[in-house]
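Structure request: Endoglucanase, Glycine soja.
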Amino acid sequence: MSMYGRDPWGGPLEIHATDSATDDERSRNLQELDRGALDETQQSWLLGAGEQKKNKKTYVDLGCIIVSRKLFIWTLGTLAVFAFLSAFITLIVKTVPRHHHKPPPPDNYTIALHKALLFFNAQKSGKLPRHNNVSWRGNSCLHDGKDDGVPPVIKDLVGGYYDAGDAIKFNFPMSFSLTMLSWSVIEYSGKYQAAGELGHVKDIIKWGTDYLLKNFNSTADTITQLGMQVGSGDTSQGSATPNDHYCWMRPEDIDYDRPTQTCTTCSDLAAEMAAALAAASIVFKDNRAYSQKLVHGATTLFKFSRDQRGRYSPNGKEASVFYNSTSYWDEFVWGGAWMYFATGNSSYLKLATTPRLAKHAGAFWGGPDYGVLSWDNKLTGAQTGIVMCSYLPMFTSFNRTRGGLIQLNHGRPQPLQYVVNAAFLAALYSDYLDAADTPGWYCGPNFFSTDVLRDFAKTQIDYILGKNPRKMSYVVGFGNHYPKHVHHRGASIPKNKVKYNCKGGWKWRDSSKPNPHTIVGAMVAGPDKHDHFHDVRTNYNYTEPTLAGNAGLVAALVALSGDKTTGIDKNTLFSAVPPMFPTPPPPPAPWKP
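Returned structure:
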């Protein structure tokens, strides 16, 4: 007999009566099966590997875990292969040549900038710093300011800079040079930093401002006397008195008297010295104590310039022969502007923008030197935008040589010192317009883009660096073809442990051999109006460098150097100027219920 039921998975479910058993029998059978399974499980868990005779797998005991030997060996092999591949890849990366994108080489303006700054190291007077980087220079003129007749407040005039190829220290052009250098740092500190020269140029400025502070009682609020010159160059009437022009000696060997000259009515000199200290105070604004010292000295000097009127170089004074000042009104405008930027005092701005002052300075009547920035004429620096049109070749304010050099001094000798100043102003004004998102400016009805100004600056500096009919660089040490007979005492006399006296050095002055020392970075006076140049040591109109000329060169070079997108510093010039609008009040406190 059989019974049929439904298999839930499909098909019949058949149960035979003959195979059936009682419930007790089925229960006993299940218990026996459970005990057998349990005994086998216990053996697999509790017995050691050697005792598991029926289990063919082997295991590795890692202390905290037991894993299959096969799995353990596979894991170790994988790690070994991975380590080998990693080491192999690292070896390949280290040995295969890398193709890094090197930074572009410095442009010619940056290269020339490095050299032009070294000229100031070569011109230092006094006890030189350890790392002056001009091997043929040493300590010199360590008794300056100690001659008879020097005011008691001027006790020490050691330091400063020699003006040119001689050893005279003229405060008038020296101050202008420092103002130009400071102006360039204020506007282009980022470019100086990129060139690695920011610290260097600041050291150059401080060497000069430290010296200017010695020329008057810089701690006083009011002064009556001012140092203006150390050394003498008077060779009139066949004088054979040893001095800085009659003698040809290394500064380190000078043993003749170096008189100190002072002035009591010298508005132009005092105002220019004030401008130099005021501009430098902005450069050193992060050195609060020194910056305030410069501002105080500048304030004292500018007050002196306004209180005791007069030119520092009237007829009969030696200064009128070498650095004659035509008036002091332009220094009032120039100095007043820098005093405003250094102090934020609006009274200086009011003075600098007074129409009567501008009229006296020649702002409205023009003249042959209108638009020519120089150590004598500062008006152009204070009214930059007005003169830009005169630099463009389509206008006839100034002639040009056949080689393209603008004749700002109308064909007179030593043209380059004026050209570099114009190049700086043009590049700077172009950057001013770019900073204001202004694409250009108008000259009458004609519109010119900012690129026109920058191109003018580049063509003039390129001429100086060698793109001229003679293919000569007028910056010593730049390029392969540059003047070798520079009119410079220190560079033309060998440093051979021989002291050549006043006349003993004449043989080196008159020698046709190249200078034994290269005065790197010196910009010589330049070619004549026909692009001709004579590399002759005795002709200073061609081969003598000056502080003022090199200061303008440095300013123009840094303005043109590097990436044009760097632009100018929009804020530093106005760091001491109060905001045009009052500071808005703070927001109200959060509302609380």
